[in-house]
Amino acid sequence: MNNTDEIEFSRVRKLVSHYAVSPEAKDKILVQPLATKLVKATALLDETAEMVWILNHGLHIPFISSDALTPILNKVKKGFILNPAELEQVADFIRVTRLLVRFFNKQRNNTPIIASYCDTLTILDTLESEIYNAIERGQVSDNADKDLAKLRQRSNKLSTNIQNTLQKYLQSKKYQTMLQDYQIIQKDNHYTLPIKASFKHTFGGSIIDHSNNGNTVFIEPTKIVHLTQEKATVENQIYLIESQILGDLSAKIYQELSQLEANLNIIIDLDCILARAKYSQSINGKRPLLNEQNQLQLNEMRHPLLSNPVPLSLNLDSSKRGLIITGPNAGGKTVTLKTAGLAIAMAEFGLFLPSSGICSIPVMTAIYTSIGDHQDLDNSLSTFSAEMKQMSYIVQHATKYSLILLDELGSGTDPNEGAALAIALLQTLQLKGSLILATTHYSAIKDYSTKHPTFITAAMDFDLKTLEPTYKLLLHQIGTSRALWIAEKNGMPQEVLTQANNFLNTGKFPLNQSKIKFANNQKKIKSTVSFKKGDRLKVPEYEQDVLFYQNSDLANQIIIFVNKTFKTIPIKGAKLVRKAKDLYPEGYNLDLLFIQDWKEYKLNRDLNRGSKKAWKKLKKIDKLR
Protein backbone atom coordinates (compact mmCIF):
# COMPACT_ATOMS: atom_id res chain seq x y z
CA MET A 1 0.00 0.00 0.00
CA ASN A 2 1.21 3.48 -0.85
CA ASN A 3 -0.60 6.55 0.49
CA THR A 4 0.91 9.34 -1.57
CA ASP A 5 -2.04 11.75 -1.60
CA GLU A 6 -0.82 13.78 1.39
CA ILE A 7 2.62 14.31 -0.16
CA GLU A 8 0.89 15.45 -3.40
CA PHE A 9 2.45 12.82 -5.65
CA SER A 10 -0.75 12.92 -7.71
CA ARG A 11 0.32 16.39 -8.87
CA VAL A 12 3.65 14.96 -10.03
CA ARG A 13 1.79 12.21 -11.91
CA LYS A 14 -0.33 14.84 -13.64
CA LEU A 15 2.74 16.82 -14.70
CA VAL A 16 4.28 13.65 -16.13
CA SER A 17 1.05 12.78 -17.98
CA HIS A 18 1.14 16.11 -19.82
CA TYR A 19 4.21 14.86 -21.69
CA ALA A 20 2.41 11.75 -23.01
CA VAL A 21 1.06 11.76 -26.57
CA SER A 22 -1.91 9.39 -26.30
CA PRO A 23 -4.86 9.59 -23.89
CA GLU A 24 -4.29 5.93 -22.99
CA ALA A 25 -0.73 6.70 -21.86
CA LYS A 26 -1.92 9.77 -19.92
CA ASP A 27 -4.50 7.66 -18.09
CA LYS A 28 -2.00 4.90 -17.37
CA ILE A 29 0.47 7.35 -15.83
CA LEU A 30 -2.21 8.60 -13.43
CA VAL A 31 -2.88 5.11 -12.02
CA GLN A 32 0.36 3.17 -12.50
CA PRO A 33 1.42 1.71 -9.12
CA LEU A 34 4.81 2.42 -7.59
CA ALA A 35 7.45 -0.29 -7.88
CA THR A 36 7.95 -1.85 -4.45
CA LYS A 37 10.66 -4.30 -5.52
CA LEU A 38 14.26 -3.36 -6.32
CA VAL A 39 14.28 -5.24 -9.64
CA LYS A 40 11.12 -3.52 -10.91
CA ALA A 41 12.13 -0.04 -9.72
CA THR A 42 15.57 -0.45 -11.32
CA ALA A 43 13.96 -1.55 -14.60
CA LEU A 44 11.76 1.57 -14.65
CA LEU A 45 14.77 3.83 -14.11
CA ASP A 46 16.71 1.94 -16.82
CA GLU A 47 13.87 2.63 -19.26
CA THR A 48 13.78 6.31 -18.33
CA ALA A 49 17.57 6.59 -18.62
CA GLU A 50 17.54 5.22 -22.18
CA MET A 51 14.81 7.65 -23.24
CA VAL A 52 16.68 10.54 -21.58
CA TRP A 53 19.73 9.56 -23.65
CA ILE A 54 17.60 9.80 -26.81
CA LEU A 55 16.32 13.25 -25.80
CA ASN A 56 19.74 14.55 -24.79
CA HIS A 57 21.10 13.62 -28.23
CA GLY A 58 18.30 15.48 -30.01
CA LEU A 59 16.94 12.38 -31.75
CA HIS A 60 13.33 12.43 -32.95
CA ILE A 61 11.24 9.42 -32.02
CA PRO A 62 8.47 8.63 -34.53
CA PHE A 63 5.23 8.68 -32.57
CA ILE A 64 1.52 8.93 -33.22
CA SER A 65 -1.38 9.44 -30.86
CA SER A 66 -3.38 6.28 -30.40
CA ASP A 67 -6.54 8.07 -29.26
CA ALA A 68 -8.36 7.44 -32.55
CA LEU A 69 -7.08 3.89 -33.05
CA THR A 70 -8.78 2.28 -30.05
CA PRO A 71 -12.36 3.13 -31.18
CA ILE A 72 -11.44 2.09 -34.73
CA LEU A 73 -10.26 -1.33 -33.57
CA ASN A 74 -13.41 -1.65 -31.47
CA LYS A 75 -15.50 -1.04 -34.62
CA VAL A 76 -13.60 -3.79 -36.43
CA LYS A 77 -14.22 -6.16 -33.50
CA LYS A 78 -17.96 -5.59 -33.89
CA GLY A 79 -17.83 -6.30 -37.63
CA PHE A 80 -18.30 -2.74 -38.89
CA ILE A 81 -16.78 -1.64 -42.18
CA LEU A 82 -14.29 1.20 -41.76
CA ASN A 83 -14.49 4.39 -43.79
CA PRO A 84 -11.50 5.62 -45.84
CA ALA A 85 -10.30 8.08 -43.16
CA GLU A 86 -10.32 5.33 -40.51
CA LEU A 87 -8.41 2.98 -42.79
CA GLU A 88 -5.78 5.66 -43.33
CA GLN A 89 -5.39 6.04 -39.56
CA VAL A 90 -4.76 2.30 -39.24
CA ALA A 91 -2.17 2.49 -42.01
CA ASP A 92 -0.52 5.48 -40.32
CA PHE A 93 -0.30 3.52 -37.06
CA ILE A 94 1.26 0.52 -38.83
CA ARG A 95 3.74 2.86 -40.50
CA VAL A 96 4.76 4.40 -37.15
CA THR A 97 5.19 0.91 -35.70
CA ARG A 98 7.56 0.05 -38.55
CA LEU A 99 9.49 3.31 -38.12
CA LEU A 100 9.82 2.75 -34.35
CA VAL A 101 11.35 -0.68 -34.92
CA ARG A 102 13.79 0.76 -37.43
CA PHE A 103 14.65 3.73 -35.18
CA PHE A 104 15.47 1.68 -32.08
CA ASN A 105 17.30 -0.96 -34.10
CA LYS A 106 19.73 1.79 -35.09
CA GLN A 107 20.07 2.86 -31.44
CA ARG A 108 20.24 -0.67 -30.02
CA ASN A 109 23.71 -0.18 -28.51
CA ASN A 110 22.53 2.85 -26.52
CA THR A 111 18.96 1.74 -25.80
CA PRO A 112 19.04 -2.07 -25.54
CA ILE A 113 16.01 -2.34 -23.24
CA ILE A 114 13.65 -0.25 -25.36
CA ALA A 115 15.00 -1.92 -28.51
CA SER A 116 14.04 -5.26 -26.99
CA TYR A 117 10.49 -3.96 -26.47
CA CYS A 118 10.34 -2.95 -30.12
CA ASP A 119 11.48 -6.43 -31.11
CA THR A 120 8.08 -7.65 -29.94
CA LEU A 121 6.25 -5.28 -32.32
CA THR A 122 4.72 -7.01 -35.35
CA ILE A 123 5.45 -5.26 -38.65
CA LEU A 124 2.37 -5.42 -40.90
CA ASP A 125 3.92 -3.81 -43.96
CA THR A 126 1.75 -5.78 -46.44
CA LEU A 127 -1.46 -4.50 -44.86
CA GLU A 128 0.04 -1.00 -44.71
CA SER A 129 0.79 -1.06 -48.46
CA GLU A 130 -2.65 -2.43 -49.36
CA ILE A 131 -4.40 0.35 -47.46
CA TYR A 132 -2.21 3.14 -48.86
CA ASN A 133 -2.63 1.76 -52.42
CA ALA A 134 -6.41 1.67 -52.08
CA ILE A 135 -7.03 4.83 -50.05
CA GLU A 136 -5.83 8.30 -50.96
CA ARG A 137 -6.65 11.63 -49.31
CA GLY A 138 -9.60 10.26 -47.38
CA GLN A 139 -11.30 8.41 -50.23
CA VAL A 140 -10.99 5.22 -52.26
CA SER A 141 -8.31 5.74 -54.91
CA ASP A 142 -9.14 5.62 -58.64
CA ASN A 143 -6.45 2.95 -58.94
CA ALA A 144 -8.13 0.65 -56.42
CA ASP A 145 -10.31 -0.91 -59.18
CA LYS A 146 -10.00 -1.06 -62.98
CA ASP A 147 -13.55 0.28 -63.58
CA LEU A 148 -13.64 2.87 -60.80
CA ALA A 149 -11.86 5.68 -62.65
CA LYS A 150 -14.12 5.32 -65.74
CA LEU A 151 -17.29 5.28 -63.67
CA ARG A 152 -16.24 8.42 -61.77
CA GLN A 153 -15.45 10.18 -65.05
CA ARG A 154 -18.89 9.21 -66.40
CA SER A 155 -20.57 10.46 -63.21
CA ASN A 156 -18.75 13.79 -63.42
CA LYS A 157 -19.73 14.17 -67.11
CA LEU A 158 -23.40 13.48 -66.33
CA SER A 159 -23.30 16.06 -63.53
CA THR A 160 -21.88 18.62 -65.96
CA ASN A 161 -24.60 17.87 -68.55
CA ILE A 162 -27.31 18.22 -65.91
CA GLN A 163 -25.88 21.55 -64.71
CA ASN A 164 -25.62 22.89 -68.28
CA THR A 165 -29.21 21.90 -69.07
CA LEU A 166 -30.53 23.56 -65.93
CA GLN A 167 -28.50 26.72 -66.61
CA LYS A 168 -30.36 27.04 -69.95
CA TYR A 169 -33.63 27.08 -68.02
CA LEU A 170 -32.32 29.80 -65.73
CA GLN A 171 -31.14 31.91 -68.67
CA SER A 172 -34.23 31.43 -70.86
CA LYS A 173 -36.67 34.37 -71.02
CA LYS A 174 -39.49 31.86 -71.37
CA TYR A 175 -39.11 30.76 -67.73
CA GLN A 176 -38.20 34.07 -66.08
CA THR A 177 -41.69 34.69 -64.70
CA MET A 178 -42.00 31.10 -63.48
CA LEU A 179 -38.78 31.02 -61.46
CA GLN A 180 -38.97 31.87 -57.76
CA ASP A 181 -35.17 32.12 -57.58
CA TYR A 182 -32.27 31.82 -60.04
CA GLN A 183 -30.45 28.83 -58.60
CA ILE A 184 -30.21 25.04 -58.87
CA ILE A 185 -31.26 23.21 -55.69
CA GLN A 186 -30.67 19.55 -54.86
CA LYS A 187 -33.57 17.73 -53.19
CA ASP A 188 -33.34 14.02 -52.34
CA ASN A 189 -30.59 13.45 -54.95
CA HIS A 190 -32.65 15.26 -57.60
CA TYR A 191 -31.55 18.45 -59.33
CA THR A 192 -34.48 20.90 -59.18
CA LEU A 193 -35.45 24.46 -59.96
CA PRO A 194 -37.53 26.63 -57.56
CA ILE A 195 -40.78 27.38 -59.44
CA LYS A 196 -43.64 29.58 -58.28
CA ALA A 197 -46.54 27.41 -57.11
CA SER A 198 -48.93 29.05 -59.57
CA PHE A 199 -46.86 27.65 -62.48
CA LYS A 200 -46.45 24.07 -61.17
CA HIS A 201 -48.71 22.66 -63.90
CA THR A 202 -47.30 24.90 -66.62
CA PHE A 203 -43.58 24.09 -66.07
CA GLY A 204 -42.89 20.60 -67.44
CA GLY A 205 -41.36 18.17 -64.96
CA SER A 206 -41.78 16.21 -61.70
CA ILE A 207 -42.56 17.95 -58.43
CA ILE A 208 -39.95 16.77 -55.91
CA ASP A 209 -40.71 19.00 -52.90
CA HIS A 210 -42.59 22.08 -51.61
CA SER A 211 -41.47 25.06 -49.54
CA ASN A 212 -42.82 25.40 -46.01
CA ASN A 213 -45.14 28.27 -46.93
CA GLY A 214 -46.36 26.52 -50.09
CA ASN A 215 -45.34 29.39 -52.38
CA THR A 216 -42.56 27.42 -54.07
CA VAL A 217 -42.38 23.97 -55.64
CA PHE A 218 -39.10 22.28 -56.52
CA ILE A 219 -39.42 20.69 -59.95
CA GLU A 220 -37.06 18.34 -61.77
CA PRO A 221 -37.37 19.30 -65.47
CA THR A 222 -38.36 16.50 -67.87
CA LYS A 223 -35.25 17.08 -70.00
CA ILE A 224 -32.87 15.94 -67.22
CA VAL A 225 -34.81 12.95 -65.89
CA HIS A 226 -32.94 10.44 -68.04
CA LEU A 227 -29.61 12.10 -67.14
CA THR A 228 -30.44 11.91 -63.43
CA GLN A 229 -31.46 8.27 -63.70
CA GLU A 230 -28.26 7.35 -65.51
CA LYS A 231 -26.19 9.25 -62.94
CA ALA A 232 -27.94 7.37 -60.11
CA THR A 233 -27.10 4.06 -61.79
CA VAL A 234 -23.45 5.03 -62.19
CA GLU A 235 -23.25 6.28 -58.58
CA ASN A 236 -24.67 2.98 -57.34
CA GLN A 237 -22.02 1.08 -59.30
CA ILE A 238 -19.33 3.29 -57.73
CA TYR A 239 -20.79 2.69 -54.26
CA LEU A 240 -20.77 -1.09 -54.71
CA ILE A 241 -17.13 -1.10 -55.83
CA GLU A 242 -16.04 1.21 -52.99
CA SER A 243 -17.98 -0.83 -50.41
CA GLN A 244 -16.31 -4.00 -51.66
CA ILE A 245 -12.85 -2.43 -51.31
CA LEU A 246 -13.58 -0.99 -47.84
CA GLY A 247 -15.05 -4.30 -46.71
CA ASP A 248 -12.05 -6.29 -47.94
CA LEU A 249 -9.60 -3.97 -46.16
CA SER A 250 -11.65 -4.03 -42.94
CA ALA A 251 -11.65 -7.83 -43.06
CA LYS A 252 -7.87 -7.89 -43.43
CA ILE A 253 -7.55 -5.59 -40.41
CA TYR A 254 -9.80 -7.94 -38.46
CA GLN A 255 -7.43 -10.81 -39.28
CA GLU A 256 -4.53 -8.81 -37.79
CA LEU A 257 -6.53 -7.46 -34.84
CA SER A 258 -4.60 -9.26 -32.08
CA GLN A 259 -1.26 -8.07 -33.50
CA LEU A 260 -2.54 -4.51 -33.82
CA GLU A 261 -3.79 -4.47 -30.21
CA ALA A 262 -0.51 -5.93 -28.95
CA ASN A 263 1.40 -3.27 -30.89
CA LEU A 264 -0.87 -0.59 -29.47
CA ASN A 265 -0.19 -1.68 -25.87
CA ILE A 266 3.58 -1.66 -26.45
CA ILE A 267 3.46 1.81 -28.01
CA ILE A 268 1.38 3.08 -25.07
CA ASP A 269 4.10 1.74 -22.74
CA LEU A 270 6.78 3.48 -24.83
CA ASP A 271 4.70 6.66 -24.65
CA CYS A 272 4.70 6.40 -20.82
CA ILE A 273 8.48 5.91 -20.75
CA LEU A 274 9.00 8.90 -23.02
CA ALA A 275 6.75 11.03 -20.78
CA ARG A 276 8.80 10.05 -17.72
CA ALA A 277 12.00 10.93 -19.56
CA LYS A 278 10.69 14.31 -20.75
CA TYR A 279 9.56 15.22 -17.23
CA SER A 280 12.88 14.07 -15.75
CA GLN A 281 14.69 16.22 -18.29
CA SER A 282 12.42 19.21 -17.59
CA ILE A 283 13.39 19.23 -13.89
CA ASN A 284 17.08 18.70 -14.70
CA GLY A 285 16.78 15.43 -12.82
CA LYS A 286 19.53 13.03 -11.85
CA ARG A 287 19.10 9.29 -11.70
CA PRO A 288 18.99 8.10 -8.08
CA LEU A 289 20.74 5.04 -6.72
CA LEU A 290 18.41 2.41 -5.29
CA ASN A 291 19.12 0.22 -2.29
CA GLU A 292 17.55 -2.46 -0.12
CA GLN A 293 19.48 -1.41 2.98
CA ASN A 294 16.89 1.23 3.94
CA GLN A 295 19.35 4.07 3.37
CA LEU A 296 17.82 7.43 2.51
CA GLN A 297 20.44 9.91 1.39
CA LEU A 298 19.24 13.14 -0.19
CA ASN A 299 21.85 15.36 -1.78
CA GLU A 300 20.34 18.83 -2.21
CA MET A 301 16.98 17.45 -3.28
CA ARG A 302 14.52 20.15 -4.38
CA HIS A 303 10.77 19.89 -3.91
CA PRO A 304 9.49 19.33 -7.49
CA LEU A 305 6.27 21.32 -7.07
CA LEU A 306 7.64 24.51 -5.51
CA SER A 307 9.26 27.46 -7.24
CA ASN A 308 12.73 28.24 -5.89
CA PRO A 309 12.65 25.59 -3.13
CA VAL A 310 15.48 25.36 -0.60
CA PRO A 311 17.43 22.13 -1.32
CA LEU A 312 17.20 19.34 1.25
CA SER A 313 20.11 17.14 2.34
CA LEU A 314 19.88 14.34 4.90
CA ASN A 315 21.18 10.84 5.53
CA LEU A 316 19.32 8.02 7.30
CA ASP A 317 20.47 4.39 7.37
CA SER A 318 19.94 1.13 9.22
CA SER A 319 21.47 2.56 12.41
CA LYS A 320 19.58 5.85 12.28
CA ARG A 321 16.01 5.00 11.32
CA GLY A 322 14.25 8.15 12.49
CA LEU A 323 14.46 11.90 12.00
CA ILE A 324 12.61 14.22 14.40
CA ILE A 325 12.27 17.74 12.97
CA THR A 326 11.59 20.77 15.15
CA GLY A 327 11.16 24.46 14.48
CA PRO A 328 8.55 27.17 13.94
CA ASN A 329 5.33 26.87 11.99
CA ALA A 330 5.76 28.01 8.39
CA GLY A 331 9.44 27.19 8.76
CA GLY A 332 9.49 24.32 6.28
CA LYS A 333 9.00 21.21 8.45
CA THR A 334 6.07 19.82 6.47
CA VAL A 335 7.77 20.61 3.16
CA THR A 336 10.77 18.60 4.39
CA LEU A 337 8.52 15.58 5.05
CA LYS A 338 6.89 15.86 1.65
CA THR A 339 10.22 16.30 -0.15
CA ALA A 340 11.58 13.10 1.40
CA GLY A 341 8.38 11.22 0.58
CA LEU A 342 8.34 12.51 -2.99
CA ALA A 343 11.96 11.46 -3.49
CA ILE A 344 11.05 7.83 -2.73
CA ALA A 345 7.76 7.90 -4.67
CA MET A 346 9.39 9.46 -7.74
CA ALA A 347 12.24 6.95 -7.75
CA GLU A 348 9.80 4.04 -7.44
CA PHE A 349 7.80 5.52 -10.33
CA GLY A 350 10.87 5.57 -12.58
CA LEU A 351 11.57 9.31 -12.41
CA PHE A 352 14.86 11.11 -12.00
CA LEU A 353 15.12 13.43 -8.99
CA PRO A 354 15.56 17.23 -8.99
CA SER A 355 18.79 17.16 -7.00
CA SER A 356 22.24 18.69 -7.32
CA GLY A 357 23.96 15.42 -6.41
CA ILE A 358 23.17 11.73 -6.64
CA CYS A 359 20.60 10.57 -4.08
CA SER A 360 20.41 7.09 -2.59
CA ILE A 361 16.81 5.91 -2.25
CA PRO A 362 15.50 2.85 -0.36
CA VAL A 363 12.89 0.79 -2.16
CA MET A 364 9.94 0.71 0.24
CA THR A 365 6.91 -1.55 0.12
CA ALA A 366 4.66 1.13 1.60
CA ILE A 367 4.50 4.86 2.26
CA TYR A 368 2.30 5.84 5.21
CA THR A 369 1.55 9.48 6.00
CA SER A 370 -0.23 11.50 8.65
CA ILE A 371 -0.02 15.05 7.37
CA GLY A 372 -2.55 17.87 7.65
CA ASP A 373 -6.06 18.10 9.10
CA HIS A 374 -7.66 14.67 9.44
CA GLN A 375 -11.05 15.81 10.71
CA ASP A 376 -13.76 13.46 9.42
CA LEU A 377 -17.07 15.32 9.58
CA ASP A 378 -19.00 12.53 7.85
CA ASN A 379 -18.19 10.11 10.67
CA SER A 380 -18.26 12.72 13.48
CA LEU A 381 -14.54 12.26 14.13
CA SER A 382 -12.43 15.06 15.53
CA THR A 383 -9.00 15.81 14.11
CA PHE A 384 -7.37 13.85 16.91
CA SER A 385 -9.77 10.89 16.64
CA ALA A 386 -9.27 10.68 12.88
CA GLU A 387 -5.51 10.90 13.33
CA MET A 388 -5.55 8.08 15.88
CA LYS A 389 -7.67 5.96 13.56
CA GLN A 390 -5.10 6.49 10.84
CA MET A 391 -2.18 5.82 13.20
CA SER A 392 -3.81 2.58 14.40
CA TYR A 393 -3.81 1.34 10.82
CA ILE A 394 -0.19 2.40 10.30
CA VAL A 395 1.03 0.67 13.47
CA GLN A 396 -0.74 -2.55 12.51
CA HIS A 397 0.63 -2.66 8.95
CA ALA A 398 4.07 -1.02 9.13
CA THR A 399 7.18 -3.14 8.47
CA LYS A 400 10.90 -2.51 8.19
CA TYR A 401 10.31 -1.58 4.56
CA SER A 402 7.76 1.14 5.37
CA LEU A 403 8.31 4.89 5.14
CA ILE A 404 6.37 6.74 7.86
CA LEU A 405 5.83 10.50 7.57
CA LEU A 406 4.19 12.11 10.63
CA ASP A 407 3.36 15.80 10.91
CA GLU A 408 2.72 17.15 14.44
CA LEU A 409 1.83 13.72 15.82
CA GLY A 410 -0.50 13.85 18.85
CA SER A 411 -1.06 17.60 18.64
CA GLY A 412 -4.85 17.55 18.71
CA THR A 413 -5.29 16.74 22.40
CA ASP A 414 -3.86 17.44 25.86
CA PRO A 415 -0.14 18.20 25.35
CA ASN A 416 1.08 15.81 28.06
CA GLU A 417 -1.07 12.91 26.89
CA GLY A 418 -0.43 13.72 23.23
CA ALA A 419 3.34 13.73 23.73
CA ALA A 420 3.24 10.46 25.69
CA LEU A 421 1.16 8.78 23.01
CA ALA A 422 3.40 10.14 20.24
CA ILE A 423 6.53 8.80 21.96
CA ALA A 424 4.91 5.39 22.38
CA LEU A 425 3.99 5.33 18.69
CA LEU A 426 7.49 6.36 17.62
CA GLN A 427 8.97 3.67 19.86
CA THR A 428 6.65 1.00 18.44
CA LEU A 429 7.38 1.97 14.84
CA GLN A 430 11.15 2.10 15.34
CA LEU A 431 11.05 -1.38 16.89
CA LYS A 432 9.40 -2.56 13.67
CA GLY A 433 12.38 -1.10 11.79
CA SER A 434 10.32 1.45 9.84
CA LEU A 435 11.96 4.54 8.38
CA ILE A 436 10.41 7.48 10.26
CA LEU A 437 10.38 11.23 9.61
CA ALA A 438 8.31 13.25 12.06
CA THR A 439 7.78 16.89 13.03
CA THR A 440 6.91 18.12 16.52
CA HIS A 441 6.65 21.07 18.89
CA TYR A 442 6.55 18.87 22.01
CA SER A 443 9.56 19.20 24.29
CA ALA A 444 9.09 15.62 25.54
CA ILE A 445 9.46 14.24 22.01
CA LYS A 446 12.53 16.41 21.45
CA ASP A 447 14.04 15.03 24.64
CA TYR A 448 13.15 11.46 23.64
CA SER A 449 14.79 11.81 20.23
CA THR A 450 18.03 13.20 21.68
CA LYS A 451 18.35 10.25 24.06
CA HIS A 452 17.26 7.46 21.72
CA PRO A 453 20.15 6.00 19.66
CA THR A 454 17.91 5.25 16.64
CA PHE A 455 16.71 8.82 16.18
CA ILE A 456 18.52 11.95 15.11
CA THR A 457 17.21 15.46 15.56
CA ALA A 458 17.02 18.29 13.08
CA ALA A 459 15.88 21.88 13.27
CA MET A 460 14.55 24.27 10.66
CA ASP A 461 17.02 27.15 10.53
CA PHE A 462 15.90 30.56 11.77
CA ASP A 463 17.85 33.75 11.06
CA LEU A 464 18.06 35.60 14.36
CA LYS A 465 19.24 38.79 12.65
CA THR A 466 16.34 39.08 10.22
CA LEU A 467 13.94 37.06 12.41
CA GLU A 468 12.95 35.09 9.31
CA PRO A 469 13.02 31.32 8.63
CA THR A 470 15.61 30.19 6.06
CA TYR A 471 13.86 26.85 5.37
CA LYS A 472 17.18 25.01 5.71
CA LEU A 473 17.36 21.73 7.61
CA LEU A 474 20.07 21.66 10.28
CA LEU A 475 20.86 18.10 11.36
CA HIS A 476 21.67 17.21 14.99
CA GLN A 477 20.04 20.38 16.30
CA ILE A 478 16.81 21.19 18.12
CA GLY A 479 14.66 24.13 17.09
CA THR A 480 12.09 26.21 18.90
CA SER A 481 8.56 26.93 17.80
CA ARG A 482 8.99 30.74 17.60
CA ALA A 483 5.32 31.16 18.52
CA LEU A 484 5.76 34.77 19.69
CA TRP A 485 7.56 35.69 16.49
CA ILE A 486 4.76 34.21 14.39
CA ALA A 487 2.16 36.04 16.49
CA GLU A 488 4.02 39.33 16.04
CA LYS A 489 4.33 38.80 12.27
CA ASN A 490 0.58 38.32 12.13
CA GLY A 491 -0.23 41.60 13.88
CA MET A 492 -0.59 40.54 17.50
CA PRO A 493 -0.68 43.66 19.77
CA GLN A 494 2.53 44.31 21.68
CA GLU A 495 0.77 44.29 25.07
CA VAL A 496 -0.30 40.67 24.48
CA LEU A 497 3.21 39.68 23.41
CA THR A 498 4.69 41.36 26.50
CA GLN A 499 2.36 39.44 28.83
CA ALA A 500 3.12 36.17 27.03
CA ASN A 501 6.86 36.81 27.31
CA ASN A 502 6.54 37.61 31.03
CA PHE A 503 4.67 34.37 31.64
CA LEU A 504 7.35 32.41 29.78
CA ASN A 505 10.07 33.96 31.94
CA THR A 506 8.31 33.91 35.33
CA GLY A 507 5.68 31.20 35.05
CA LYS A 508 3.16 33.53 36.75
CA PHE A 509 -0.33 33.94 35.32
CA PRO A 510 -1.58 37.49 34.59
CA LEU A 511 -4.69 37.69 36.82
CA ASN A 512 -5.67 41.38 36.54
CA GLN A 513 -9.44 41.87 36.22
CA SER A 514 -11.18 44.22 33.81
CA LYS A 515 -12.63 47.38 35.36
CA ILE A 516 -15.16 47.84 32.57
CA LYS A 517 -18.78 47.56 33.73
CA PHE A 518 -21.91 46.95 31.68
CA ALA A 519 -25.45 48.04 32.36
CA ASN A 520 -27.75 45.05 32.41
CA ASN A 521 -31.42 45.95 32.12
CA GLN A 522 -32.51 42.52 30.96
CA LYS A 523 -34.18 40.25 33.42
CA LYS A 524 -32.27 37.10 34.06
CA ILE A 525 -34.21 34.12 32.91
CA LYS A 526 -34.08 31.11 35.07
CA SER A 527 -33.30 28.18 32.82
CA THR A 528 -34.43 24.70 33.51
CA VAL A 529 -32.57 23.35 30.50
CA SER A 530 -30.11 20.61 31.32
CA PHE A 531 -28.65 20.30 27.81
CA LYS A 532 -24.91 20.80 27.32
CA LYS A 533 -23.07 22.35 24.40
CA GLY A 534 -22.67 19.78 21.62
CA ASP A 535 -25.52 17.52 22.78
CA ARG A 536 -27.42 15.91 19.90
CA LEU A 537 -31.18 16.68 20.10
CA LYS A 538 -34.39 15.73 18.35
CA VAL A 539 -36.75 18.72 17.91
CA PRO A 540 -40.22 18.95 16.28
CA GLU A 541 -39.09 21.62 13.79
CA TYR A 542 -36.56 19.39 11.96
CA GLU A 543 -36.51 15.78 10.80
CA GLN A 544 -32.76 15.37 11.29
CA ASP A 545 -30.93 15.61 14.60
CA VAL A 546 -29.64 19.04 15.65
CA LEU A 547 -26.85 20.24 17.95
CA PHE A 548 -27.55 22.20 21.14
CA TYR A 549 -25.49 25.41 21.27
CA GLN A 550 -26.70 27.38 24.30
CA ASN A 551 -29.75 28.79 26.09
CA SER A 552 -31.38 31.81 24.50
CA ASP A 553 -31.89 35.09 26.35
CA LEU A 554 -35.56 34.70 25.46
CA ALA A 555 -37.75 32.76 27.85
CA ASN A 556 -38.16 29.07 27.11
CA GLN A 557 -36.02 29.32 23.96
CA ILE A 558 -32.78 27.56 23.00
CA ILE A 559 -30.22 28.11 20.25
CA ILE A 560 -29.48 25.11 18.05
CA PHE A 561 -27.15 24.48 15.10
CA VAL A 562 -28.63 22.81 12.02
CA ASN A 563 -27.63 22.86 8.34
CA LYS A 564 -24.62 25.08 9.19
CA THR A 565 -26.99 27.73 10.63
CA PHE A 566 -27.88 28.88 14.15
CA LYS A 567 -31.63 28.84 14.92
CA THR A 568 -33.61 29.96 17.98
CA ILE A 569 -36.50 27.60 18.74
CA PRO A 570 -38.82 26.82 21.68
CA ILE A 571 -37.41 24.33 24.16
CA LYS A 572 -40.74 22.53 24.29
CA GLY A 573 -40.50 19.17 22.54
CA ALA A 574 -36.68 19.07 22.45
CA LYS A 575 -35.43 15.63 23.43
CA LEU A 576 -31.88 14.49 24.14
CA VAL A 577 -30.60 11.90 21.64
CA ARG A 578 -27.01 11.60 22.82
CA LYS A 579 -24.78 13.61 25.14
CA ALA A 580 -21.73 15.41 23.79
CA LYS A 581 -19.46 13.69 26.31
CA ASP A 582 -20.48 10.35 24.77
CA LEU A 583 -19.88 11.57 21.23
CA TYR A 584 -16.49 13.25 21.50
CA PRO A 585 -13.25 12.52 23.38
CA GLU A 586 -12.33 14.44 26.48
CA GLY A 587 -10.73 17.77 25.65
CA TYR A 588 -12.31 17.91 22.20
CA ASN A 589 -12.84 21.46 20.95
CA LEU A 590 -16.63 21.59 20.66
CA ASP A 591 -16.47 24.94 18.84
CA LEU A 592 -15.39 22.97 15.75
CA LEU A 593 -18.93 21.54 15.57
CA PHE A 594 -20.43 25.00 15.03
CA ILE A 595 -18.28 26.28 12.17
CA GLN A 596 -20.47 27.70 9.42
CA ASP A 597 -17.78 28.21 6.76
CA TRP A 598 -14.91 25.71 6.85
CA LYS A 599 -12.99 27.54 4.14
CA GLU A 600 -13.00 30.75 6.16
CA TYR A 601 -12.13 28.81 9.32
CA LYS A 602 -9.21 27.07 7.60
CA LEU A 603 -7.99 30.40 6.20
CA ASN A 604 -8.07 32.01 9.66
CA ARG A 605 -6.35 28.99 11.19
CA ASP A 606 -3.61 29.10 8.55
CA LEU A 607 -3.21 32.84 9.10
CA ASN A 608 -2.75 32.22 12.80
CA ARG A 609 -0.16 29.56 12.00
CA GLY A 610 1.77 32.07 9.92
CA SER A 611 1.10 30.38 6.57
CA LYS A 612 2.54 32.52 3.77
CA LYS A 613 0.13 30.91 1.31
CA ALA A 614 -2.81 31.99 3.46
CA TRP A 615 -1.54 35.58 3.72
CA LYS A 616 -1.12 35.73 -0.06
CA LYS A 617 -4.68 34.47 -0.45
CA LEU A 618 -5.93 37.13 2.00
CA LYS A 619 -4.13 39.88 0.08
CA LYS A 620 -5.67 38.60 -3.15
CA ILE A 621 -9.16 38.73 -1.59
CA ASP A 622 -8.52 42.29 -0.36
CA LYS A 623 -7.50 43.36 -3.87
CA LEU A 624 -10.69 41.91 -5.35
CA ARG A 625 -12.69 43.94 -2.84
TrEMBL record:
Pfam families: MutS_V. Keywords: ATP-binding, Coiled coil, DNA-binding, Endonuclease, Hydrolase, Nuclease, Nucleotide-binding. SMART domains: MUTSac (SM00534), MUTSd (SM00533). GO terms for molecular function: ATP binding; ATP hydrolysis activity; ATP-dependent DNA damage sensor activity; endonuclease activity; mismatched DNA binding. Residues 141-168 form a coiled coil. InterPro entries: DNA_mismatch_repair_MutS_C, DNA_mismatch_repair_MutS_core, DNA_mismatch_repair_MutS_sf, MutS, MutS2, P-loop_NTPase. GO terms for biological process: mismatch repair; negative regulation of DNA recombination. It comes from the Bacteria. Gene3D superfamilies: P-loop containing nucleotide triphosphate hydrolases (3.40.50.300). The keyword Coiled coil applies. Residues 402-418 form the DNA mismatch repair proteins mutS family domain. NCBIfam families: mutS2 (TIGR01069). PANTHER family: OS10G0509000 PROTEIN, OS10G0509000 PROTEIN-RELATED. This is DNA mismatch repair protein MutS.
